[in-house]
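Annex B. Sample input.
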Amino acid sequence: MDIALYLKALVLGIVEGLTEFLPISSTGHLIIVGQLLHFNNDVGKVFEIAIQLAAILAVCWEYRARLIGVIAGLPRQPSAQRFVLNLIIAFIPAAVLGLIFYKSIKTVLFQPLVVAAAFIIGGLLIMWIERRVARGTIVARVQEVDDMRWHDALKVGFAQALSLIPGTSRSGATIIGGLYCGLSRRAATEFSFFLAIPTMFAATFYDVYKHRALLHGADVGMFAVGFVASFVSAFFAVRGLLRYISRHDFTAFAWYRIGFGILVLITAYAGWVDWTG
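Annex B, continued. Sample output.
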């Protein structure tokens, strides 16, 4: 047993779980931590993709009663049918654009300037939108996820499509996009969680399938450690974020994104981190 490898898997699992649902881009954090741990080879990249599934399962577990209720009520309850329809509508933009531009994104957009710009611009957008919310320019007309209509879901779906740009953050795009479109802070955050389920299941299985030749039985233990670490840390991150937004806005995350964007530039041009993959 390679203890060092298992420790790297543990650290990366924790990083994935803590950052996946915060508006700060888990991909950016996994790249820099993977580089610092010297775990950025092809197997490491597939590992980072696989442990996303554990983070999604943590959301499924946290909202298991809601999801079971939706599934049970789907044949006859209009609210359950509307909920599923909204998820499908919101899922489509990123799914279609992701399939079309998958190769270009992987080969062209993973560049230090693109990643850093996405972090910094995203932080500035969060500040701008939060300021408009504070001034009353943006009013939360949708208080609960069940109050959303199909056009609200479509808008959030197009916001999620922006997260195809590395460094943007899927959760950041959907949460802040939801706020801008008139969702309450809690509704935007919870819909971001729910939308992550089909989006990240699809993205994870697609990526793992494409790189299945890199998977080996000897790596099962390492993947298991990362999987459990990601699940547990994501579970606490989801609960922590919901508590946080009940008392605070997202401005702190905006400053963090700007600082991280600057860190991307420093590490890239100093040659410490490879941001091209």
